[in-house]
Amino acid sequence: MLKAIFFLPMLFLVSFGYAQNEEEAKVKTTIETFFEGFHKGDTTLMKSVMMKEITMQTAFFNKKGEGVFVEDGPEKLVNAIANRPEDQKWDERLTNFNIQIDANMANAWVDYEFWFNDKFSHCGVNSFQLVKTKGKWKIIYLIDSRRRGSCKSAEKGN
Known about the structure:
Layout: H1 2-40, H2 43-47, E1 50-61, E2 67-72, H3 74-82, E3 90-102, E4 105-116, E5 119-133, E6 136-146, H4 152-155
Parallel strand pairs: 1-6
Antiparallel strand pairs: 1-2, 3-4, 4-5, 5-6
């Protein structure tokens, strides 16, 4: 009887942890799918993991050191990807994921480095908000920061 009292809570914790890790993996896959489309120029693939109502924003400091906040509709990014010149290579390297989930809502804080034609351009963080609807995770909000010259792994040429 004493073993059962100890075993049942442990079983619950292990199964809860497994379910959480499985959902985190699905959130990560959603974000990786978005960037797979980004890199390939496949806007259909990108849109497959985006909600139609997605909000996209960027925060950065201009040359004067002033904070700038820009909001663009998803069509600006989708059009840029669809019309990217063939001689341009855009490579956004995701370097770290921190994913939090509650019910059908998730947040992913994802460090990145952006390389243009194999030359380091900038780095920052992508903050994704996702919702799970009809059994699939979809990106509903994306804000990114942009920094130049302050990324340790980029400085090493990784």
